[in-house]
Amino acid sequence: MTGEATTAVIGVAGMAALIRVLTARGRTVIGPTVRGGAIVLDELTDGDELPYGRGVELEAGHYRVRPRADGAAFAHSAGPQSWKTFLHPQREREWSADRGPDGTWSVTEDDTPPPAYAFLGVRPCDLRAIAVQDRVLGGGPHSDSRYRARRERVFLVAVECTEPGATCFCTSMGTGPAVDGGYDLALTEVIDEAGHRFWARAGSDEGASVLAELPQLPADATLPAVAHEKVAAAADRMGRTMPEVDLRELMRETLDADRWNDVAARCLTCGNCTMACPTCFCTSAEDVTDLTGEHAERWRRWESCFDLEFSHLPSGPVRESGRSRYRQWATHKLGTWFDQFGSSGCVGCGRCIVWCPVGIDITEEAHALNAERAAGEGTA
């Protein structure tokens, strides 16, 4: 860290200046804004585009944007998108091929330089999700060079959570509501009798440099304590919990539980949970040609383990039933992800609960599996 100030107090004008400063540095600023009845992630060019005075009402299979009297910008829970949309795009071209006059083919890799993004408003759970995808896609012997190129150019502005939603359970997963590193700037929004302001901390040299360019309010020695209190209070107001057991062990010991039949009777195998999840990473390749047969392209797109073709072999799909596909998703997310990547694949954001069209709740399923296991042990 440089000798520049690493903490400051900024106001609403400072937030607008932050977007201008990041844009002037050649970054495309992505942050929350209201579009089409939801708080989504989109390019921001002005501070007025932030969702000031907007919150959300969440439940299983239910999402509504609601007005807020306090004018807060970040008092809303995770929306339908995650930052995966920008770091691991839903669809991208890998190469194109053209046939020349002599009949030979020339193949050109799509190596378009990625944008230099600045992500504004990254929640602690999503910050952890980015770290999970860093391990999955950016580490190991078969890392994704495209992901690494995008990730290396990202400036992260994290925002601590002071108002969790009804489907949030980050405390159960150890991923929030406070940030614990991995950011360039961290903000905590505070609105009280002293006004609307943000406690800002730099987590990198570039973060400190950006912070130094922002208009700052007078130092407030009480603000850090107030911010900590608001974040701590949020931890006590989580809308959901996971059972306080070893989830990896729970998944391993309940593979034959009757509960899987119950959830399979409700699951549409639509894959919404995998699309909304900030850590699901599976992809498939598809080749397309033009009508002349002179041009071909290969595209990579998101895939879901709920797709019947996902595990297709010459003899047929490996996981033919909805029961087996939901069980694969849940046991991988909460259990075998540890074996592959050393952590859980769930960060407690609750998106899979909200965006499930029939309201299936992964925390409810985990509690039910734990109860069935305990009942079995009691009758043994």
Explain how this protein is built:
The relative contact order is 0.16. The mean pLDDT is 94. This protein is 33% helix and 24% strand. It is of the alpha+beta class and 380 residues long. The protein has two domains: 7-235, no CATH class; 247-379, no CATH class. Strands 1-11-10-9-8-2-3 form a seven-stranded mixed β-sheet, with helices on both faces. Helix 8 crosses helix 11 (322-341) and helix 9 crosses helix 11. It has helices at 12-24, 84-87, 124-138, 145-151, 170-173, 205-212, 223-235, 247-253, 259-266, 272-276, 322-341, 351-354, 362-379; strands at residues 7-11, 28-35, 38-43, 54-59, 62-67, 91-99, 105-109, 117-122, 155-159, 185-192, 195-202, 283-289, 295-302, 312-313, 316-317. Strand 12 (283-289) and strand 13 form a beta hairpin.
